[in-house]
Design brief:
The chain is 37% helix and 26% strand. It is of the alpha+beta class and 125 residues long. The chain has a domain of 87 residues.
């Protein structure tokens, strides 16, 4: 699952069992992956319950910083993010919040543009 918030961009997947040594997935443990470690810092600042979660660095991977969190705790964080939503334009909110590097805002505009191509249009049928 990809989650884009004013705090950052998070790619969340099930963690592997046995600390990553097993091909099996742990159904109760998630790995929250980020491209910019500041995004995890922002998340842990906003949600103190995440401060005790294990973080790792994975140089040379597509997501260089990762945090392991229980599925229940992540659901609570996502719920809180939804309940705290107080803006009418996401990209403008990200820019105004200044919690992330300007490159994140620029990337959001690119994502918007790419996803706009998914929109069904009469001329594409």
């Amino acid at each position: 699952m990809w989650l884009m918030t004013p705090l950052g961009f998070y790619s969340t997947v099930c963690a592997r069992a046995d600390g990553g040594k097993s091909p099996d997935l742990d159904p109760d443990l998630l790995m929250v992956r980020v491209r910019d470690p500041q995004h995890l810092d922002n998340l842990q600042s906003q949600f103190p319950q995440l401060r005790g979660c294990t973080r790792t660095s994975s140089i040379g991977t597509d997501y260089p910083a990762r945090m392991f969190v229980s599925k229940r705790m992540w659901a609570d964080v996502v719920r809180a993010l939804v309940l705290d939503l107080d803006y009418g334009n996401f990209k403008s909110r990200v820019s105004a919040a200044r919690l992330t590097a300007p490159s994140y805002g620029a990337a959001l505009h690119s994502v918007w543009s790419v996803m706009h191509r998914v929109e069904p249009r009469e001329d594409r049928r």
